Amino acid sequence: MIFEFKDATATNGSETLFSGVSFVARPGDAVAVTGDVVARKTLLFAMLGLRPLKSGWVSIDGEPVTAVTGNYFRQFIAYQPDTLDFEGLTVQEVAKSQFAIKANADYAYSVKAVAAELSALGVDADCMQKGFDEMDEAVAHRASLVLVGMFERQLLLLDNPTSHQDEAGCQLVAGYIKQKRSEGVALIVATADENLLAVCNKRVNL
């Protein structure tokens, strides 16, 4: 799938968040979106069909992404927000809920498979039984990234994925992005982290 912004402009009241933005994300591309934090988030929401543009368009394989079509297109997209909302839930409970989603019906839940994915991002298997609010914040965010990205979506949208990480954590997330690129996944990454900019092959400054 090809994901494209063309001459896209977004506003918040009288304020222009970004203007005339154009780029294409193809399989294996990682597009780093830098600049104002609110503008970056708005761009990600536009890709999901959750935020209308003032002008221009966003499309997937040439088809416009709108509030109407967004519900269909979101089955091909995974989104990692910059804040977590899993209070009171364990990693295993969230993992099971992800496997229960209709869009993931082709995937069978496996504790070992999830644990292996967690390990790749430096998250111990015993964290499966821990609540997200019981874990170190950096570890919790990496665990969430695993659960978002473990299904074969065509596009990953990552909002500031290293904001809670130390240098070692940033390197793990950078390695994860490289891995996804090698698998032919397209990524749009809202970030100012030099570790992530180094593994993205395209950059858009808002």
Task: Describe the protein in words.
The strands form 2 sheets. A 5-stranded parallel beta sheet has the order 6-7-8-3-9, sandwiched between helices. Strands 2-1-4-5 form a 4-stranded antiparallel beta sheet, covered by helices on one side. The two termini are 24 Å apart. It has helices at 37-47, 70-73, 91-99, 111-120, 137-149, 167-182, 194-197; strands spanning 3-12, 15-25, 30-34, 55-60, 63-64, 77-80, 155-159, 186-190, 202-205. It is α/β, with parallel strands linked by helices and 206 residues long. The protein contains 7 helices and 9 strands; from the N terminus they run βββαββαβαααβαβαβ.
The ordered string of helix (H) and strand (E) elements is EEEHEEHEHHHEHEHE
Fraction of helical residues: 25-40%
Low-confidence stretches: none
User: Helical region count?
Assistant: 7
Distance from first to last alpha carbon: 24 Å
**Major β-sheet annotation:** 5 strands, parallel
Give a nutshell description of this structure.
This protein is α/β, with parallel strands linked by helices. It has helices at 37-47, 70-73, 91-99, 111-120, 137-149, 167-182, 194-197, and strands spanning 3-12, 15-25, 30-34, 55-60, 63-64, 77-80, 155-159, 186-190, 202-205.
List the helices and strands and how they pair.
Blueprint lengths: L2 E10 L2 E11 L4 E5 L2 H11 L7 E6 L2 E2 L5 H4 L3 E4 L10 H9 L11 H10 L16 H13 L5 E5 L7 H16 L3 E5 L3 H4 L4 E4 L1
Parallel strand pairs: 3-8, 3-9, 6-7, 7-8
Antiparallel strand pairs: 1-2, 1-4, 4-5
